[in-house]
Amino acid sequence: MKIFTKLYLGMMTLLVAALLTSAFFMVKTTLDRNLQRETANGLDNHKIMVTAFRNNLLLFSGNSLSVSQNMDKIGRITQGSGSVPILIAMDDKVLYNDAGLEYRPDLAVTNMINYRTVSIEGKTYIAYYSTFVRNGSKFTLVTYSDITHVLEDNNVLRKRYFIMYLIVLSCGTVFALVFSLHLTRPVDRLTEAGERFAGGDYSARITKIPNDELGRLSEVYNSMADTIQQKIEDLNLSVKQKEDFIRAFAHETKTPMTGIIGYADLIYQGRLEGNERKEAAGVILGEGMRLQALSLKLLDIMTLGNENILMEEMNTTEMAHDLENTVRIKAEEKGVEVRCSVEDDYIYVDYDLFKTVLINLADNSIKAGAKVINIRGFRKEYDYIFEVKDDGIGIPASELHRVKEAFYMVDKSRSRREHGAGLGLSLAERIMTLHKGSLEIESVEGEGTVVRLTLPDKNINVTSGTD
What we know:
Elements: H1 3-60, H2 71-79, E1 86-90, E2 93-97, E3 113-120, E4 123-134, E5 137-146, H3 148-198, H4 213-268, H5 274-303, E6 312-315, H6 316-334, E7 337-342, E8 346-349, H7 351-367, E9 372-380, E10 383-390, H8 412-417, H9 424-434, E11 438-444, E12 448-455
Parallel strand pairs: 7-9
Antiparallel strand pairs: 1-2, 1-5, 3-4, 4-5, 6-8, 9-10, 10-12, 11-12
Helix pairs in contact: 1-2, 1-3, 3-4, 4-5, 4-6, 6-7, 7-9
């Protein structure tokens, strides 16, 4: 049963019980008070008539006729105007009864006044019995007090109370309904918000909060929902970060692994000798160690949000040579010529991450169908710029602004054939941001693409430059 139903029925039960109880006691109290008043008045009148009856008996006791023979006259004199019915009995024999009243010998107790309620011709009376003994005979006088008007007034009072009861009950019903709805509306809102939240709408909140215990409960619910929503968002973010890391790491290992496998195959087939064999083994060792370090750094960047990287002084010529060795195998497989021309200088970078950016750009050029990739490095004022230029298919102008978005691929069919993940430029820009640098793209569809990596002056060892 709903709280609204319980509250409404409870209030109506209390209201009905209160109305019935108050009406009962009011009517009963009024009736009892009026009956007591009429009983006392009737008793006083009865005593007066008993005194008159005794005097009349004494008056007619000297008459030549017997008392029983004079009882009719005594009764009329005692009755007076005749407005009140009376009954006179001697030795339990009725001698005077002007209204055909019933005589109850059991109520005729000597020297006592007894009374009871009787109905005569549709009216209600209180019958008073007084009995005394005179000259050896028992005389009983019965008088009647009309209380019909008291009962009629009581019936009118009952009807009035019944009408008042219906009016108050009707008003109370409307009030109880409105009050119950008002009191339980916060509960309905709380239930609705809870159901929406349980259904996956984690933004479900209670906006209308009353200033009472239910309002406090609503505030607790909102606080709880905020906490749960934040936890869910944190979990989703954690899952996304892990997925991004897996995709990024898989993406960034493809080109180096191609080089590692290629050089390992050359060594295995015995096609390299002397210094070439040693150089190939060095590339394999270097790329393997770089991938090991790269996995930890990508984990820090993509899942832990670490923005502190350890930069060291690197020679641009050596970095370009390492880059050539890494992408050479894949470039040769695709028939792509890689040309490197960099000004010899020193820059401060995280070697593993920055090389990853350069590999990404070269790999994108290979995937874009380039025949020639030109990698240049030069100083512009205090900035050092790496430029990767290709003659591939280029990027449509309408897509250029989106190429840095994670998982966005201009040519999805080509990317699937090349097992692309759509993370290259997004990750590259993030790494450049950690270096306080920038990544700029210029492209003309059908002609090729130019990507510029700018390392600001604070990342350059300016003392190593020429003046």
